[in-house]
Amino acid sequence: MTEEEIGEQALQTAQMVANIPSIREGFSQASPEETIQPIAEEMRKLTGAEFIVIGNTEGIRYSHPDQDKLGKNMVGGDNDAALIDGESYVSRAEGSLGPSLRGKTPVWNYEGDIVGVVSVGYMIKDINATILSNIKKLILPSVIVLFVGTIGGLLLTRNIRGQLMGFEPHKITSLYRERNAILSAIHEGMIAVNEDGVIQLMNQSAEKLLSGKQKAFFNQPISKVLPELPLSSLIKNGQVCRNKQVEVNDRHIIFNMVPIYNQNQVRGAVLSFRDKTELKEIIDTLGEVRSYSEELRAQTHEYTNRLYVLSGMLQLGNFEEAIELIQKETQTVETQNKIVYDQISDKTIQAILLGKIGKASELKINFLIDDYSSLSEMADYIEPTNLITILGNVIDNALDAVRETENGTVQFFSTDIGHDYIFEVADNGVGIGKKDIHRIFHRRFSTKDKTTRGYGLAMVKETIENLNGRIEVKSNLAEGTIFTIFIPKQQAKKTG
Question: Where are the transmembrane segments (predicted)?
Fold first, then answer.
């Protein structure tokens, strides 16, 4: 920088001297040195230059700090660019005074011809002395800055390594990739939050569970995303939660939370979620199957009791009464069984109806299957568990509705005429009020015991909707209720 500044200064001085009118006119005089030398020396003293040498096109000096060298050839061999090409430039050469940095520019006369050259120079040794002086001025501040920077760098490095737990960058990159792979492979939903309960990380399983997009949840308070859970207070207190069951978006979830500690302070928490809905549905279905088994056992017990009654009648000689009882039972069984076995072909529905007939018999409730009922085998896409959930819960709901009703009756009808399977379950129970009829399919809503009920009809509606079907209900207080179910025979095609 010092050399560039001095070279630029030399060039500007040379250009200024070359444009002095007296200098330009002096070249046309008989003794140019008499006019040019005094002006050049005065300018040298004013600018502090080591020398200002002016020569003609032949390189003959008209000015020089040493008057004995006037009239002699200029030394250095760097005038051609100025005299021939008319250029102004900075050069480094060794002249009569020693190595120097020079500013060179041509001298033009008023006709536009080059008549000479101006060379303004500073000695290299003086330039080096100036540079050394500047370096000395910079050494102390530089050392101080270097020392402070070194100390600061060491402290910053130590702090960063502490934050990164001593890992090198390539190791951090590897851990980041492994973390993403692990989060994608985990079936459970995972969410990481900071000490303020703000979401910092979420995997795809959690995204599906919350029915949204990761970007939409990122940097959002967990209390807004999962208002069902008192997470803010749990995170603040650093409490551990294990296998807590909650309901999120109508799904049964098992929730766990482990706080993250750093230097004995809570810095956040990791939350995991397991969807228990499918497992609960399987458990409920198994419960239905167990119920049917018990109902069939009850039916067997009921018929055993009737056989004992017949045996007693025969032993007492009441033959006519025994025959009448047999005929009555035979007629009822034949009618019901004829419809079940001859008009309904699906084995699952047959099993459901036989179980419910036994349960109704035990509860002293009339369970009637409409004579015009008919049904072929259900489509393959309709699972037996779907039928158990739908018909089992609807019929049980009807049986419960008529338990306290005199001459309680439940009627069942089915048909597959048209594009849908249609099931109808009617009862003459207490009915459902208008204010409640729109809420009977909501979870936890029940007209009976609200602590243990309120899930059956909700599961029915969800199962039917999953099959792209629908359910309708008509009810009047003190008159009874009719549930009508429509399930398509063909599975709807998925789009998207």
Answer: 138-157
